[in-house]
Design brief:
10 strands, globular, eight-stranded parallel barrel, alpha/beta, TIM Barrel, two-stranded antiparallel ribbon
Length: 270
């Protein structure tokens, strides 16, 4: 495991400990299950769709946007984003559960909690804050912990985006994808050692992605050309963060990316 991912995992464990001390597991489960049913993923990825991300800061790129983050999320929806992703990791990415809750309150599409989750507690915590799904990073978790996280996802009725960085991650993820609840598979092309983008990873893992699962390309997607490329590889969704956060016209950029992805997906299907 890279130093960066190890550091994020350790920080997440500390946050879980503090959260449990303030709010016992039984209390957060009760709150999660009392929350209105989550918004469903539905037809996401039927042709090609976008997960548009609210990410205040990036370890690789620094500060990304001003404080009007909820308004930016609304603009993403106006451009056609079928899902929103909200960073809740506070130290490296500047996120918070308060930000997640604020975006979820205005959202008309499913909202993903993106964080370095290490404990089922955080799944229930996400639902109680209004999230409809959670990111699960295979590299960060043992098989047993990943299974426990997925059981918590299923109990809440949420969806999971399971993230792979390489073939071994993907192999482990594909072993978990039989079961109740909707699961998406994400392929992240960021090198966790250097934090640099390696687009070849999208290409390398595309052939191993089952057609029965909705696959999502992550990282390094800067514009319509990149979206066109990953749609041509067979991905039916893309998660875009930094490029949208830096855009002065985020609604227009979402629309342009969607257009490129759907055009290529339709061409590939004929």
């Amino acid at each position: 495991m890279s130093r960066f991912l190890q550091s994020m995992g350790q920080s997440s464990q500390l946050r879980v400990g503090a959260a449990r001390a303030a709010r016992p597991l039984e209390s957060v489960i009760e709150a999660a299950l009392a929350t209105p049913p989550p918004r469903v993923v539905g037809r996401f990825g039927k042709v090609f769709d976008l997960i548009a991300e609210i990410k205040p800061r990036s370890p690789a790129e620094g500060e990304l946007a001003d404080s009007r983050l909820v308004e930016r999320a609304v603009a993403y929806q106006a451009g056609g984003a079928r899902m929103l992703s909200v960073l809740t990791e506070p130290e490296a990415f500047g996120g918070s559960l308060d930000l997640l809750e604020a975006v979820a309150a205005r959202a008309q599409v499913p909202v993903l909690r993106k964080d370095f989750l290490v404990d089922p507690y955080q799944v229930f915590e996400a639902r109680s804050a209004g999230a409809d799904g959670v990111l699960i990073i295979a590299r960060l978790l043992s098989d047993e912990t990943m299974a426990a996280m997925l059981r918590a996802v299923e109990r809440t009725g949420m969806f999971a985006l399971l993230e792979a960085f390489d073939a071994e991650d993907l192999r482990r993820i594909l072993q978990t994808t039989e079961g109740p609840g909707q699961r998406l598979v994400g392929v992240n092309c960021r090198n966790l050692e250097t934090l640099r983008i390696e687009p070849a990873i999208h290409t390398e893992l595309a052939a191993s992605l089952p057609a029965t699962l909705t696959s999502v390309a992550e990282s390094g997607l800067l514009g319509p050309t990149d979206i066109h490329r990953v749609a041509g590889l067979g991905y039916r969704g893309a998660l875009v963060g930094s490029a949208l956060m830096r855009s002065s016209q985020p609604s227009d950029m979402v629309e342009a990316m969607l257009g490129a992805g759907r055009e290529m997906a339709k061409m590939a299907a004929t």
